[in-house]
Amino acid sequence: MRIGLTGGIASGKSTVSLYLASLGIEIIDGDLLAREVLVLYPEILAYLKDTYGDLIFLEGQLDRRALGRIIFQDEKKKKAYLDVIMPKIIEEARKRLKKAKGSFVVLDAALLFEEGLDQDVDVTVTVFVPYEVQIKRLLQRDPLTVSEAVSRIQSQMPLEEKRRRANHVVDNSGSREETYQQINEILKSLGFGEIKGQEIEKKKKEEK
Ligand SMILES: CC(C)(COP(=O)(O)OP(=O)(O)OC[C@H]1O[C@@H](n2cnc3c(N)ncnc32)[C@H](O)[C@@H]1O)[C@@H](O)C(=O)NCCC(=O)NCCS
Ligand SMILES: Nc1ncnc2c1ncn2[C@@H]1O[C@H](COP(=O)(O)OP(=O)(O)OP(=O)(O)O)[C@@H](O)[C@H]1O
């Protein structure tokens, strides 16, 4: 069973992924793949150096926040960058989905629907929060200005649309525990075995 997990920025994908991993499910993390392909394919960094140079490189190191500031505010620049990086991410994601050994595997991808990766999984799950919760959590977590946070949210497919398109929706506006319970229900409906209460207790302790 291949599960495609998606959502908006700071809607709670990683929180859900971590919980699924604690149940022993393999996670393929799209954000991690985006970092890995930069190492695997030097031509991507070469493209970024040629296009933006010192604007996004500090002492030879890619400044991800600076790149984000540019591409999340300019649709054309975002598309040009995604045209370079996404084929590699998609290729890696497909390889890992094929190699996955367990009976359940999760592909955690912000761009699951945008990039057609929903076609590579059996079922899709959107982690949803209302806009006010999303922006509050984003600003609490990341060192962004309000306008940077708004432009990141606006550069994504509306979370409402991701909610409509998914087979299952997790509402992550309540407590983490409420979210884990919703995941348990979804897993049950997909034929995952019994989930013991201590898994949730264990996660609660880790978070304290
Ligand atoms: C632009 C980059 C360098 C900014 O890095 P930064 O560390 O500041 O942010 P981070 O990677 O944590 O992303 C923040 C959030 O935006 C989402 N996101 C990433 N890229 C995009 C995009 N092109 N469009 C919409 N959302 C995106 C991420 O999944 C995450 O939810 C980076 O996000 C990137 O390389 N993105 C392009 C490819 C990608 O990550 N795709 C997601 C995997 S499917
Ligand atoms: N139910 C919750 N209650 C309170 N805080 C939460 C809850 N779920 C997530 N958070 C917090 O909100 C922030 C965003 O969550 P998380 O990092 O899981 O989102 P994400 O969708 O993976 O984000 P991104 O794609 O931007 O990496 C984090 O700081 C996380 O600790």
Automatic annotation (TrEMBL):
Question: Keyword Repressor, does the record have it?
Answer: no
Tell me the route in metabolism or biology where this protein functions.
Cofactor biosynthesis; coenzyme A biosynthesis; CoA from (R)-pantothenate: step 5/5
Keyword Nucleotide-binding in record: yes
Example GO biological process term? coenzyme A biosynthetic process
Tell me the PROSITE patterns matching this sequence: DPCK (PS51219)
The role this protein plays is: Catalyzes the phosphorylation of the 3'-hydroxyl group of dephosphocoenzyme A to form coenzyme A.
Protein name as it appears in the record = Dephospho-CoA kinase
Per the UniProt record, the source organism is Proteiniclasticum ruminis
Protein encoded by which gene = coaE
